[in-house]
């Protein structure tokens, strides 16, 4: 994976804040959050390789959480994003935490990060991976029609939104363009099901937030996250689902800003050698 081919948006000025989306999403998921940070920070929202406008890795290339961690670190180095604040959702949250472990992050704020699920949830993710593989055999026009049926749209709202009945959730649907043989989504789902965050120190301020209505990675996973990242500030996002940037962008921005400021205060008060 070539960091020079990663698509991104860059707004504002100040210390950089890098925003990382979840599996199957794209950088535009942060569009309601970025303007709330850009007055004080340089906000860089990224399309992870294989999603949005960033090309997918070759079939023979490693493609898992750890390979994405490497390419995002290379992306930051390439663009001069030194010691950036990192924020991520789901898969993006796992990448941000791993970069925090490596000591390259100024702070880390994550929303429902992958890697903390129990065995039952992992079985569910593997089932999703199996269904995704089966769906690759269905012609695309058929998949598009199925995704637009009322039951499929209701399932998407239930899985992804905090309040499935809200007017804002009405347009939610499952994307089926990624359900093709060898597609990034199909390749990545089993990798996420197998990924487990290993407890290690993270030498910067960390906030781990979980939507109390997350039906994709259940809120009970937050207990495992607290055990493995004991220095993290734990937050429950009331009324939010798996993608809180869509449900409550204002609160998401406030928690990112809180963690950034905690790191900035620490940097100003650190003793000079």
Automatic annotation (TrEMBL):
It comes from the Bacteria. Residues 17-254 form the AB hydrolase-1 domain. It holds the Pfam family Abhydrolase_6. GO terms for molecular function: catalytic activity. It comes from Nocardiopsis metallicus. This is Pimeloyl-ACP methyl ester carboxylesterase. InterPro entries: AB_hydrolase_1, AB_hydrolase_fold.
